[in-house]
Design a protein that fits this description.
Elements lengths: L1 H5 L6 H7 E3 L14 E5 L5 H12 L3 E6 L13 E4 L5 H12 L3 E4 L2 H16 L5 H11 L5 H4 L2 H10 L7 E4 L2 H8 L6 E5 L8 E4 L2 H12 L4 H9 L7 H5 L6 E5 L3 E11 L2 E13 L6 E7 L2 H14 L3 E10 L5 E7 L16 H10 L14 E4 L2 H5 L8 E3 L5 H8 L7 H17 L18
Parallel strand pairs: 2-3, 2-5, 3-4, 15-16
Antiparallel strand pairs: 1-4, 6-9, 7-8, 7-9, 10-11, 10-13, 11-12, 12-15, 13-14
Helix pairs in contact: 4-5, 5-6, 9-10
């Protein structure tokens, strides 16, 4: 880590100029400079981040971004400045971008960006007075630094939730096969096994036997091995997998009791531990048994919002975060299963008073009352674009379609995700699709997607 930290200091003007692209419509001396300046940071290329950027700009913010090449955000036409997010020197990318844009607030839009900001905060505090401004900005954006280690540990987070009186599944960290055997003596199958630092449904396994659990434990502890890093680089065109492999990271693994029922989640935005706005949804269509939601139903679930308030208050969070739940079949009890420490898809949906998270954040940053913006839809069924189209959900026709119709270039970009433009990806997807058609539909993941199956994690 030391070699990377020392490279943060002293970004030259030439380095900043070479790595930034200015929006030709941006006039730094205009009267608009009173609007809050927000920096979006993402290492992935998620469609929801581009849509979030549009909503933030619509709400009156000046939005800049640090992101990989060909991110969908670049097709929005609203970014003030854009910087390249280096997979090999991510902390230098972040620090240089922060110095160049001087933002009022940073929103990390994927889990790796959250981790990088935590590392950058530790560095900034370690260098003394010269890092105070950067450390203060990160604390303003993410909340209390005492919460940062908890964010990266599923086991610790659920332990805190239990201390707050919230309902969570039985959960334990697993370090060896003997731990699995001990768990077996107390808990019935199936079990849910998860690796820290994973997201989007990856790094989650459902075990039905002890042998299967042992195999999953070995696989999850080697999650950042060379094989997966090379596959993600070549197939998904994602070089950010190389860094954890190079550092030799071995994620902690937890095992949870399986809750039979309906998946649900909520997204909130908060400020110094206080929830400003939030939305809860039940998942009616998803990308496989453990994948991200594609079609959701907006619900009023006090238990979910109570969980968000307790977690935000206990950890002193600021910014966006999401919580995942299971609604137990039969009893209807709500179980918290994990947290996403960044904006989830539901966070950007402007659904009226108390549910407009983008408006609430922009109002807080500009010190102005939250504008009363009409809901984007009165329909409680919402289909996330573009994932819902591949889910073949029976609820598609009756749902509100979250499509950026006013941005045709962005729409076209989202229809052709970055990995799918690779010849290798298309070849492997066809092979995988043919294998699945030969085997027939998987009862756990549903029918084969019309655009080809997502390659295994």
């Amino acid at each position: 880590m030391f070699w990377e930290h020392t490279s943060i200091v002293g970004n030259s003007p030439k380095e900043t100029k070479d790595n930034v692209k200015m929006n030709p419509n941006h006039h730094p001396n205009s009267k608009e400079t009173t609007a809050p300046r927000i920096l979006l940071a993402e290492t992935s290329r998620w469609p929801s981040t581009a849509l979030l950027a549009l909503d933030l700009a619509k709400a009156g913010s000046h939005v800049s971004a640090v992101c990989p090449t060909r991110h969908p955000m670049l097709k929005t036409g609203i970014l003030r400045q854009t910087f390249h997010y280096s997979s090999f020197r991510p902390l230098k990318s972040l620090s240089g971008t922060i110095e160049a844009t001087n933002p009022d607030f940073i929103i990390p839009c994927d889990d790796r960006a959250v981790e990088h900001l935590h590392e950058l905060h530790a560095w900034a505090r370690g260098v003394g007075a010269s890092g105070n401004k950067m450390a203060a900005l990160i604390e303003k954006s993410l909340g209390s630094p005492e919460s940062y280690p908890t964010v990266g540990s599923r086991c610790d987070l659920l332990g805190i939730a239990r201390e707050e009186g919230l309902r969570v599944p039985d959960t334990e960290q697993i370090n060896s096969e003997s731990d699995l055997k001990s768990w077996r003596g107390r808990k019935k199958f199936p079990w849910v096994m998860k690796a820290d630092g994973t997201y989007g449904g990856h790094g989650v396994k459902i075990a039905h036997t002890l042998d299967e659990a042992g195999r999953f434990l070995l696989e999850l502890t080697r999650y950042y091995g060379a094989g997966r890093a090379i596959k993600r680089l070549c197939v998904d065109r994602d070089p950010f997998w190389l860094r954890p492999w190079w550092k030799g990271l071995k994620p902690a693994v937890i095992v949870q009791s399986y809750i039979h029922g309906l998946p649900a989640n909520c997204g909130v935005v908060c400020w110094k531990g206080k929830v400003l706005a939030g939305v809860g949804v039940e998942v009616v269509g998803a990308a496989g048994a453990t994948g991200p939601s594609a079609v959701v139903r907006v619900v009023d679930n006090p238990d979910m919002m109570l969980c968000a308030e307790r977690i935000a208050g206990r950890l002193g969070f600021s910014g966006f975060f999401g919580l995942d739940f299971m609604i137990e079949e039969g009893s209807g009890l709500t179980y918290l299963i994990e947290m996403n420490p960044r904006p989830t898809r539901v966070c950007r949906l402007q659904l009226g008073k108390g549910r407009d998270q983008v408006g609430a954040l922009c109002g807080q940053l500009s010190n102005r009352p939250v504008r009363d913006v009409p809901p984007v839809t009165q329909n409680r069924m919402i289909a996330y674009f573009p994932d819902a189209w591949d889910s073949r959900s029976e609820f598609l026709e009756s749902s509100f379609h979250d499509i950026p119709e006013a941005k045709p270039e962005l729409l076209e970009e989202l229809r052709r995700p970055w990995p799918t433009t690779s010849l290798l990806w298309r070849l492997l997807a066809q092979v995988d699709c043919m294998k699945s058609l030969w085997r027939g539909p998987d009862p756990m993941t549903g029918p084969v997607s019309k655009s080809g199956l997502v390659l295994g994690s």
